[in-house]
Q: What sequence folds into this?
């Protein structure tokens, strides 16, 4: 049976501008054929089992020719695959989307089109330029600044000038002097406000605002490169006034997030929304133990413990799996008090219909230990192997009987360490949300120089661990994500 093709617009770069429908298509893709302008954060959404075909590689200026791309889409669909053709911006705006559908149409391959947020409108928006404004203009025109191979640029500058509308040129970096001259020759005001915006919507976005006559020189001085968008029109005057993107509190900051992949999403998203350039570097992962006889034995006599302690959300998840596997349910915990290191862990307990009796105000083992100083045992600690010593030390000191049962292991990984080593050459912030993320980070980069790193730590224990490796630190006031983000804003 034939497969199908979904032509998806990936938006201009900011991963938040991929549409929900585009995201859904990506999640079901078996093959993804993508272009150079699609950002790595969006490529990261491609399921790991899907085949990826990069047709935008420009190694020695040899892009895959259009006919061959059309052929790849057809062949993969004929193999019965669900193919996503992922393109920058909107697939039908200077995206050759139409050309790619022709062959599919001929062969009767089913296809759909998911429009995308085009750079033509969104990049000006991120540069503070509303492409229309009732006080300035009543139309906007989108023009290519790139000529078809072998022919000259053919733009009717007179016609464009007559519209009095905002002019948006795509693919125009090389032709910028020609375009500006063309407009001037056609009678446009030399003082007409204009802009060029490079890497729009991305943390590295740069813009140059100048008059039409000055723009080529200023863009050259700033070494503006492709991809960039040229905007000509009175609306460019508003760019500095509406410059919301460049004023985001973390604009220009490089931040590496070291949380495990399954839990890094919200922190990365929140930092990105604040303008940071975020690299997710999940250098640790928790792996549940396939067999955990110690936990099974503890579960058999669960009613004999006075306290059950969890130090991360993985703890209760694994505990309940084993409890259910033993044919029992939450009622087995009737007389047992529950302690959770923080609200995330407590919310996992709530999922199972249970409330934590103890949650420290500062979410770390030291503070949990302080809360438990007067506990009468026995205590069951259900946590990672190689956990913090704070709790066992306190129980031993205070003569509280306890059992420390390792339910999962923390493994260290180096998913993309070359990229991180590159980032370490300049000033970079690294978030550490537990002592184990510090160890994972250091272990994954043997011999690396951390002198440019500022470790942004969730709490004092984590900070102590980072300092052991000579990493400069700042510490959140409270051990919460909100507080960590506030702390990063203050750096
Ligand atoms: N289909 C795309 C445009 C493809 S043509 C869309 O709808 O956005 C490629 C041109 O788009 C680039 O040369 C550049 O002019 C523009 N472009 C795409 N992404 C951009 C970005 N993030 N910043 C600035 N210009 C961008």
A:
């Amino acid at each position: 049976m034939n497969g199908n093709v979904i032509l998806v617009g990936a938006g201009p770069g900011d991963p938040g501008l991929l549409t929900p429908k585009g995201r859904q298509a990506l999640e079901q893709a078996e093959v993804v054929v993508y272009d150079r302008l699609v950002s790595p954060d969006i490529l990261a959404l491609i399921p790991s089992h899907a085949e990826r075909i990069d047709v935008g590689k420009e190694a020695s200026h040899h892009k895959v020719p259009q006919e061959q791309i059309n052929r790849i889409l057809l062949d993969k669909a004929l193999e019965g695959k669900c193919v996503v053709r992922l393109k920058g911006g909107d697939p039908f705006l200077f995206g050759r989307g139409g050309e790619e559908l022709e062959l599919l149409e001929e062969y009767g391959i089913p296809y759909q089109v998911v429009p995308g947020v085009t750079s033509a409108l969104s990049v000006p928006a991120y540069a503070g330029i509303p492409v229309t404004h009732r006080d300035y203009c009543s139309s906007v025109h989108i023009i290519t600044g790139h000529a078809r191979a072998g022919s000259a640029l053919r733009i009717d500058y007179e016609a464009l000038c007559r519209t009095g509308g905002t002019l948006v040129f795509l693919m125009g970096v090389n032709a910028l002097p020609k375009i500006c001259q063309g407009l001037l020759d056609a009678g446009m005001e030399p003082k007409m406000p204009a802009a060029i915006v490079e890497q729009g919507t991305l943390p590295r976005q740069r813009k140059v605002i100048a008059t039409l006559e000055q723009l080529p020189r200023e863009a050259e001085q700033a070494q503006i490169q492709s991809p960039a968008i040229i905007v000509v029109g009175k609306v460019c005057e508003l760019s500095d006034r509406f410059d919301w993107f460049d004023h985001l509190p973390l604009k220009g900051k490089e931040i590496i997030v070291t949380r495990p992949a399954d839990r890094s999403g919200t922190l990365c998203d929140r930092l990105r929304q604040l303008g940071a350039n975020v690299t997710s570097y999940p250098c640790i992962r928790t792996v549940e133990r396939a067999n955990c006889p110690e936990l099974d034995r503890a579960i058999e006599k669960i009613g004999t413990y006075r306290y059950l302690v969890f130090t991360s959300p993985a703890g209760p998840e694994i505990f309940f799996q084993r409890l259910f596997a033993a044919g029992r349910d939450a009622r087995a915990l009737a007389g047992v008090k529950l302690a959770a290191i923080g609200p995330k862990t407590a919310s996992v307990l709530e999922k199972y219909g249970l409330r934590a009796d103890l949650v420290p105000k500062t979410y770390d083992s030291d503070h949990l230990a302080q809360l438990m100083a007067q506990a009468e045992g026995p205590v069951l600690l259900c946590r990672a192997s190689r956990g913090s010593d704070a709790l066992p030390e306190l129980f031993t000191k205070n003569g509280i009987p306890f059992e420390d049962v390792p339910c999962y292991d923390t493994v260290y990984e180096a998913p993309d360490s070359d990229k991180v080593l590159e980032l370490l050459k300049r000033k970079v912030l690294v978030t550490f949300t537990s002592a184990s993320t510090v160890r994972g980070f250091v272990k994954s980069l043997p011999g690396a120089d951390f002198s440019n790193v500022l470790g942004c730590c969730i709490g004092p224990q984590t900070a102590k661990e980072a300092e052991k490796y000579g990493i400069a630190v700042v510490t959140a006031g409270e051990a919460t994500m909100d507080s960590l983000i506030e702390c990063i804003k203050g750096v």
Observations:
- The chain has four domains: 4-117, 121-242, 254-283+413-489, 287-411.
- The domain at 121-242 is CATH 3.30.950.10 (Methyltransferase, Cobalt-precorrin-4 Transmethylase; Domain 2).
- Residues 235 and 285 are 49 Å apart (CA to CA).
- The first strand starts at residue 4 and ends at 9.
